[in-house]
Amino acid sequence: MEDPDYLTEGYLNLARSNEKLCEFQKTVSYCETCLNMQGTTVSLQLNGQVCLSMGNAYLGLSVFQKALVSYEKALRYAHNNDDKMLECRVCCSLGNFYIQLKDYEKALFFPCKAAELVNDYGKGWSLKYRAMSQYHMSVAYRKLMRLADAMECCEESMKIALQHGDRPLQALCLLNFADIHRCQKDVDKAFPRYESSMCIMSEIGNRLGQASIYVGVGKCWILQKEYDKALDSLQRAHDLAEAIGNKLCILKVHSLCEGIYRCKEQQDELREQVVKFLQCVEELELYCGMCGESIGEKNQQLQALPCSHIFHLKCLQTNGTKGCPKCHRSSVKLGFV
Asked: Under a CB-based contact definition with an 8 Å cutoff, are residues 118 and 129 in contact?
């Protein structure tokens, strides 16, 4: 408690630990404590890592604008301190950010940038940085339906994760392998991968990972037209997502349930899911402030203004603006992301 450097590092480690356990509100609180401390130069050098952890927590809570603000700050610290490791980690997180908002071009660009940083500067780094960039590239390739590329990157990431005993990354790779098999309509291969991933996710306490697995399993049951089993799996995903505050996962569940009830021609349940889905969209503010159409519903190019409000790229190009339509801040220069 007497040493500001140790104290800042302690709070940062508490923030990171809570982030891994999906206690995102606690993560934000510990990060704010770090940033409010009047530490020494050493403490200030940790601020970039604090902003990254805060961004990941806000992304876990589906608060996209605040997540982007935090990532912007983290990148600024990385550039000012010439910290390539931090820049690599932020690029991987930005890949995940744009995966969730379905701008798959940016979702691939950022982990590719991370992989470049590893190749150019990472000779003395841990191999986990290479594994991390390969994993995020794999997810982007899967979303772009480049499944051979997705499998190759995921295999590379898994190989390193196994060598280093990196259990959290192994769980993510297994989940991604399962999703790749599901995209190939090979549910017999997908199910055991989901199961293996779930064992590790449960062991390490990654509840957001568990929710993602239940969504994937639900999609497999939908492919097999086993709608009651799908609804059971999606309910489990919903309960986990609600417990950790991840609104985007809840939105996905309502969307999938809506499709199931439409197939089953259960009109009352269908209407209920439509209402809940629209409420989620409103809460998440997942719509473009220019055209009013949704963001994150399909693969579209997006662009953030310096205030970190996000719009369709085509809307910004078509309408042109000297300020943000949402907060009316003037757009002097584009940020890093």
From this structure: yes
pLDDT given for residue 241 in this prediction: 97
Label residue 124 exposed, middle or buried (CB < 10 Å: 0-12, 13-18, 19+). Answer: exposed
CATH fold group of domain 200-286: 1.25.40
Report field, pTM of the whole predicted structure over 0.85: yes
Q: Give me the residue label for tokens 């009651």.
A: 228
Q: What is the pLDDT of residue 42?
A: 62
What single-letter DSSP state applies at residue 311? E
Give 2-29 as a DSSP string.
--HHHHHHHHHHHHHHHHHTT-HHHHHH
Class of domain 1-82: mainly alpha
pLDDT digits (tens, 9 = 90+) for 246-283: 999 999 999 999 999 999 999 999 999 999 988 888 88
- The torsion defined by the Cα of 20, 21, 23 and 27, in degrees rounded to 10, comes to -30
Of 105, 83, 87, 22, give the one whose Cα is nearest residue 57.
Answer: 22
Report the chain's mean pLDDT, rounded to a whole number.
Answer: 91
| Sequence spans of domains, the chain | 1-82, 200-286, 288-336
